[in-house]
Records
---
Amino acid sequence: MSDKVNENEQEQEQQEHSEESARELIKSRIVSKLQDIKSFPQFVLETMRKLNDPTSNVADVAKSLSRDEGLVLRVLKLANSAAYGATRNISNIQDAVALLGYKAVSNIILAASVYSAMDKGLSGYALDRGELWRHSLMVAYVSRHIAQKLGGHVSADDAYVGGLLHDIGKVVLNDYVRFGYGIIVKMVEEQSIPFTEAEVQVLGFDHAMIGDLLTEKWGLPEGYRCAVAYHHRPNDLPESKKIHQPLLDIVSISNSLCLMLGIGIGADGLQGYLYPEPLERLGITDFEDLMADVIDFANEVSRDASFTSGM
């Protein structure tokens, strides 16, 4: 009898060792893949720096931006759209930058830079091509809307960018989630735990952690990184980063609302959760009205998604 018990214990130890070895191998491959992800092109980083430099002028930004024809077309198209009420046709990039403002141009550049990475199918998350992009745009729209409603807690443009980037880590982690999909989903269903927690247990990372590493590599501001890293656990933001709590809370709420409404829900919508604390911290009491607003944004997002992909 004792021999049988010993054999079972040895088999269990071997299995645990094998699983741990597999996890370590997956983790090393994830880190390696992260290193392979290209940063933004140098001219994009240069343009973003100029947009954030109070001493730069419109001519500096326009000159840097002119190095990419696709971005020039995007900026000109937006400047001539009904949303900005241009009274004449704007064909000069410098005039377009002056009309739109630095924040709007910065958003266009960032959206264009991440679009190609997001506009693909992610089978590991059960997302068809374009679904991650549409979900990210929707969260960006809702985040901007909440920031505007709150009137000053967070810049509406910062909220938009935080929402746009929040799920960028899925692009890196997708292949490994697909590899362990069956195990992850089983853990979610049997243990009633969030998908992200199962990701960590199986892979050693979740997509938010990977997104944080990726945005750090890109040299993006800490506020965006916090929104990416903690959007599934907004109450865990370290004390040293509390200045970014309002931005994080807005993105977390927006993501949860979109998942609740089935917008880009994918596999990680399983066991999703809307924390009450972010709502309380931001003083949001009209939750039902907010839900209605989110539904109204659907057509806008479809138009914006088509605008981005059509350029």
---
Amino acid sequence: MIREVASNELFTVLLVLGLVVIAATKLVAPKRFNDFIYIIGSYKYLKIYSRDQKFFDKFDALLFINLVLSVSVFSFMVYQVFGDEETLTVNFMFKLTVGIGVFILIKVLIERLLGSLFEIDKLVEVYLFQKISYKNYLGLLLLPINAVLIFNIRPSLTMIYCIVGFLLVVNGVGLMTLFKTHLNVIKNNLFYFILYLCALEIAPYIILYKVFITK
């Protein structure tokens, strides 16, 4: 074991909760879930389900819950690797999970608002659906990765960088697919799309990085 028993117990609860959420997702929409599993190697999922987008989608909402849980657990491990050996508590994990969830939700709402202001609503809707789908897929990948890091392998700085690099590559595949599919639309709205990317995809993470480094 690499952590105190109490910490492992809480991690175990969160991992099991993630598994329950994923099982519920498959139960809600088994065919869609099976298509979602192959999102990296096939454009089928994005092509079919982007047409039926809803402001609130039960399938995406369940996967989002798993995403937040998985990212929270991974973020805490990264926090420890970077030098803070703080013991995991329910209060700390609750604040971390809520903070990550609120950050993502506010970001999505602002993205929709800016899409309307820049009059590129359709492009932003497709972009958000694809981006959220790939992020939810990252949450799926993080679940077994977190389990291995918690119970089998002590995470090192090099390992964390490798995992983050792998996740960025997977996310990059989603962005490249979007750019390739909607190249003409992006070209026609290039200035607004670049402004949109800088404001919502780059600036928030730079701010978070500065806050993290300052601490």
---
Amino acid sequence: MANVKITTGQYVSIEQRMASVSDRVFAQMLDWLFMWIYTTFVTMIFFSATSSLINYYERLFICIYIALLLPAIFYHLIFEFFFNGASPGKKILKLKVVMVDGSSPTLGSFIMRWMMYLLECMILPGIGLLCIIFNKKGQRLGDMMAGTMVIKNNDYSKQLIDLNNFGYVNPGYKPCYPEVATLSMRQAEVVRETLMNNSSNRAFYIDELSNKIREYLNIPPLINANNEIFLDTVLNDYRYYSSTIEI
């Protein structure tokens, strides 16, 4: 599989190697084996220990049996959420689930992957494998819906990007708004895109975004302020604070 390069919110370039198709297939086979061992063990123990009582409490025992099988149904969700994105099969093959930006997935992302996994297995068998083969990031449907991907764990390199290559703040720059340090990379990107917008509504977008940022960061409005200059200052301040973060 090819490597994927991403840039984090601290302007760190991370190169991650996507999990190969064979690695993911073998990991899934191992997970299926573990699920089969668990369900077989539960079934044998449960019915051998309760066979004489099942006829009298049939419904109760069916409910208990289904409850005992729930860990197998929620297998991927449980392990990936509590064990840093790795089911036992993935752990053995040194794979893990991450967001496409390199961050750790949220519970919502894991739930989406798991729900789509059930759909792929029960309704669309084989579609997940086809997606992994033809998707540039090796994503199955669940990954695409959740914004995740599977990578080789501990098989990546990272390096600090030279911010000057991106036209960032000059040495000696002094920021104006300390509150800007709390902005996310995506929020700063919205500011940059708004400033680069050349549509007829550019002034309107700049004014609206300026008001929202002042409200969000609790920055008082300036007298006779130029909103474009304000946004440009916000962007430069963000670049300044991002460039001073220690890696």
